[in-house]
Protein: Calpain-5-like protein
Amino acid sequence: MPTANGQLIYCHSNDSNEFWSALVEKAYAKLCGCYEALDGGNTADALVDFTGGVSEPMDLLEGKFNQEEETRNQLFERVLKVHNRGGLISCSIRATTQADMEARLDCGLVKGHAYAVTDVRKVRLGTGLMAFFKSEKLSMIRMRNPWGQREWNGAWSDSSEEWQRVSKSEREKLGVTVQDDGEFW
Structure:
């Protein structure tokens, strides 16, 4: 297993007694030829290899999801349906050049880096009875950086003021935590 200073370099668990993920990665690297073949690989390809499932890539710019609210709503409903059916979803910000790969953006995200979608929900805004009667909901997607750190730091980030629009009990149900654990809404 590749190590530096006695620590695994690539895939590893936070629990030192858990070793299976590094072994699976090693086997996959052997299947692909070497660890270098995994560097910058396509997440969709890996999911197909590991599950035997089918992948469906979507380009948000190409699909003009940033321009029309109706198309964004349709995309969210589709992502919600896939998530509720147990589908595996990942996302990334396209790196246009090799030099751009792993570039850290001001918003806290990393270009060319794969993020796992860990939850998809319609979050009820408001507190108390107002939340039930007004029933305004916000479409939200929770993502996780597999590095276990480096998170989104904009609107709706862990400690942003936007979360004050959501009741404490709703935040607890969503599992909102203020720590650099790599997971963010």
Q: What stands out?
A: The chain has a mean pLDDT of 86. Residues 14 and 44 are 25 Å apart (CA to CA).
